[in-house]
Amino acid sequence: MKYCKKCVMPNTRPGIKFDKTGVCFPCRVAEKRKKTDWEARKKEFDKLCNRYRRNDGKYDCVVPVSGGKDSHYQVHIMKDIMRMNPLLICVSDSFGHTKAGDHNIRNISEAFGADIIVYNLNHKTMRSMVKLAFEKYGSPTWPIDLAIYSVPIKLAAALGIKLIVYGENIAYEYGGPGAIETYSAKMQIKNDVVKSIDWNWWYEHGIKPEEVDFLKYPSPDIVDVLEPIYLSYFFPWDGMKNYLVAKRFGFRDANGEWDREGFIENFDQIDSFGYIVHPWLKYPKYGHARATDVSCYWIRNGYITREEGIRNVKENDHKLDPKALDDFLKFTGYTDREFWAIVDKFYNRKIFESVDGEWRLKNPIWNKKNR
User: What is the DSSP string of 59-85?
Assistant: First the structure.
């Protein structure tokens, strides 16, 4: 493993690129965005919104939301700043929800006076798909993540709402396939969050076509007549600042409810317990998890130093939160032993070694040569 010279991101992240000086693509993006003319981008966004703004009381845009800090920020921009009339669409996962998560999804509607549709997935089918995706690919939330992308697009098309407002361009902001600076989110499904799996594979393993028809990503002819966009193209994107804005409108973090192991903050991905098993599974596969991701964001935005980021990674990245694991086991029906036997299959032997039954990175970032 090699690590970015500015942040703590390893070269094992899928799609990440380093330049000749050893600096990762997202760090260079962060430098570039500091020079962006945000006033000009705001004017560009005004013109785009004017093409879709309605005066008849009907919805003029869709905002896909989770209820999280970024969702609150998105709705604040569209409702309070742009004076649009958004319809909020939330895809609810099948895991146990936190009290903060339940509060936040209600609050985002109440605080901004916006209608919201909460789409609940078929729990029985989701359980089967989560287990299949976990055992075969080490990606248990594949069907949930696909629904997060698919459902708002399909509902927007069915309701005749063309403008769909997403948050950040994940591939460009954080590094990944298709990392180009653009406001258009028409190619979002290609960002590698939801890897392509042949639907025939699902059918061969007992999933019925009629159970997943609405889950499938819409065809290009549907997407092409819509206008899905990234808000991060028009406004500087900073999760910490989004959190501070969201708190002003009633967003609640996990303080007092959930002291999460493996995380260095208490305000991101706090909607449900079992879901965060998925981001932790990056650790056995790629040697980094959520502490690395967030430390990188904070380093790029000047909140912490690289040395502080290294300490965060060393102390946290390997830890899987016990509440998250318990909820995941409750939903899927696995025992602890069955779960860890599956996880062991996904440890990357190129970057990990087993020492007395414990997996350890061969070349962790805290090695002196990586500092």
Answer: --EEEEE-SSHHHHHHHIIIIIIS---
Rounded to an integer, what is the distance from CA 39 to the centroid of its chain? 27
Prediction pTM value? 0.95
CATH of domain 38-233: 3.40.50.620
Helix (H, G, I), strand (E, B) or coil at 269: coil
d(CA 74, CA 89) in angstroms, rounded, equals 12
Residue ranges per domain, the chain? 38-233, 265-370
Residue (of 265, 272, 260) closest to 244 by Cα position: 265
Query: 3-state DSSP call for residue 264?
Result: coil
Cα 182 to Cα 190: distance, rounded to the nearest angstrom = 14
Rounded Cα distance, 157 and 227, in Å: 10
Place of tokens 């966004």: 45
Per-residue pLDDT of the chain in tens (371 residues, 90 and over written 9): 999 999 999 999 998 999 999 999 999 999 999 999 999 999 999 999 999 999 899 999 999 999 999 999 999 999 999 999 999 999 999 899 999 999 999 999 999 999 999 999 899 999 999 999 999 999 999 999 999 999 999 999 999 999 999 999 988 888 877 788 999 999 888 877 788 889 999 999 999 999 999 899 999 999 999 999 999 999 999 999 999 999 999 999 999 999 999 999 999 999 999 999 999 999 999 999 999 999 999 999 999 999 999 999 999 999 999 999 999 999 999 999 999 999 999 999 999 999 988 999 999 999 988 77
> Closest Cα partner for 361 from 347, 371, 351, 350?
351
Supply 106's token pair: 């209600």
Question: What DSSP element (H or E) covers 166?
Answer: strand 163-166
Q: Do 223 and 156 form a contact (C-beta atoms < 8 A)?
A: no
Asked whether 279 and 290 are in contact (CB, 8 A), the reply is yes
Q: Which residues contact 97 (CB under 8 A, 6 or more apart)?
A: 271, 272, 273
Burial class from Cβ neighbours inside 10 Å (0-12, 13-18, 19+) for residue 102 reads middle
